[in-house]
Input
Amino acid sequence: MFRYLIALSVAAVLVAGCGPAPQSGRGFTLPEGDVARGQATFVELQCNACHKVKGVDLPAAENATDLSVALGGKVARIETYGELVTSIINPSHKIAKGYAKEEVTTDAEGKHSRMLNYNEIVTVEQLADLVTFLQSHYELQPVDMTEYPPYL
Ligand code: HEC
Output
């Protein structure tokens, strides 16, 4: 019995210790978005001034910049919903990989994204649509695993 109690309290501590931190994004989800509306919003908000979306023909943006950060296409791992939302509402949180930092950031350390801040413009509905649109254009590319001979 005593042993059983110890095991139970150890389990309780472990479970509590592994729970999500209060700042965790766990449990976060937006209402369902719409791909076609998301594409229209992408153009309306002039996201295409700095971005192209693989496989999508977008009209030229009025205020086009020298930037052409590609969204969508083949990736080794699909960008999660949470990652895409974060890239839009908090772009400097994680800077896109594969670009020279002078190209995509405004500071020498490469910490501040050149992306515009839309937080006072974009509605929650537009955000849901944008993410649904972008997510539909990512394609999972299986990674070629190196094959190792069995270890004997
Ligand atoms: C002034 C240029 C500019 C505009 C306008 C812009 N972005 Fe960006 N965006 C960037 C740059 C530069 C990056 C790469 C640096 C970073 O990760 O923030 C980026 C990164 C992203 C990423 C992450 C890409 C990755 O591979 O990690 C997403 C998603 C994104 N933008 C979506 C949008 C959406 C949606 C809009 C319109 C609401 C928009 N952007 C408007 C410049 C812009």
